[in-house]
Design brief:
single chain, about 325 residues, alpha+beta, NADH Oxidase, 2 domains, 4-stranded antiparallel β-sheet, about 40% helix
Length: about 325
């Protein structure tokens, strides 16, 4: 008889899955054990209605959670076969994981799993240290290994072009009072189990910043603490933009972020150019690619960030 996943497998995997990043730390996922498999679902009550009306960001976040879940199961000795969007009539189910042939976890799986607890979104300025070629190669390879690709934006003029697209998208969003209310709704003053605490929101954005930041914090930066003038900017792309492509993008995003963490790098995500349709198309044309941009990343070296809170395993299991 084929092995089935157990409640213990589910809880072990979900404990890692919930450490994935999500828009505004909304944690838009649920998990369930069904017919011996573990299923990951979008929680429609946690999809952002203004900045993510299509559910793109929620599906990317759930894809990142799927990747963590895969790692946890592999390290536990119960690796998974993964099907994306397994039920055409149940669009909220993003993936179903069933037991694959037992095998030891690979060294890469062990390394990436160990990085889950250390990964943070780094919203503060980076150090001036450049990202070396070997680390850049690892990031590009990580995206490719999950069926996506990572374009590294090279050269001051190219970085400035992408930055201007991001700033323009941010201006469009911030002109919408409903968007500003949505950001405020998910900004936390206390140790809430979701949302972005002011303490980890980074310094308040200023007009001269190269890249835009969400106004989660109102912390005025100290003199000399401007953001780095030449960050490593990268754009994660997929071939298409179907829901399955977006879930694939989430898995690739998390593999890139964990690879960066293992390399001692920090990263933050800029989704504003993806949330504004015209900006996303501008970004695609600027890259000269036929694929679809799914996330913009800012990567570098910096002080370890503070971990944002997560809901408990019990809160996200059906």
């Amino acid at each position: 008889m084929a092995r089935a996943y157990t409640e213990e497998d589910l809880r072990c995997g979900v404990a890692a899955a919930i450490r994935a990043p999500s828009p505004f730390n909304t944690q838009p996922w649920r998990f369930r054990l069904r017919d011996g498999g573990i299923e990951v679902l979008v929680d429609p009550e946690r999809v952002l209605p203004v900045s993510d009306p299509s559910g793109w960001g929620a599906r990317v976040a759930c894809g990142a959670a799927v990747f963590n879940l895969r790692l946890a199961l592999a390290v536990a000795g119960v690796p998974a076969a993964t099907r994306l969007r397994p039920y055409p009539d149940q669009p909220l189910v993003v993936a179903r994981l069933t037991p694959a042939t037992p095998r030891p976890a690979t060294p890469t799986e062990q390394i990436l799993f160990a990085a889950i607890a250390r990964r943070r979104s780094h919203r503060a300025p980076f150090w001036p240290t450049p990202v070396p070629a070997e680390a850049r190669w690892r990031l590009v390879t990580a995206a490719r290994d999950e069926g996506a690709w990572l374009d590294l934006v090279i050269g001051l003029s190219a970085v400035e072009a992408v930055a201007e697209i991001a700033r323009s998208a941010n201006r469009v969003l911030e002109r919408n009072p409903r968007y500003r209310a949505e950001v405020a709704c998910w900004t936390r003053n206390s140790n809430a189990p979701d949302g972005v605490p002011i303490a980890v929101g980074g310094p308040a954005p200023e007009p001269h910043d190269l890249l835009p930041a969400r106004p989660f914090a109102q912390l005025v930066r100290a003199p000399g603490r401007d953001f780095e003038p030449e960050p490593l900017v990268a754009v994660l792309n997929t071939l298409g933009d179907t829901p399955a492509d977006q879930i694939t993008a989430g898995q690739a995003l998390q593999r890139v972020l964990l690879t960066a963490t293992d390399a001692g790098l920090a990263a933050s995500m800029l989704s504003q150019p993806i949330e504004v349709g015209a900006a996303r198309e501008q970004l695609r044309r600027a890259l000269g690619r036929s694929g679809i941009p799914q996330m913009v990343l800012r990567i570098g070296y910096g002080e370890p960030g503070i971990m944002t809170a997560r809901r408990s395993v019990d809160d996200v299991i059906d």
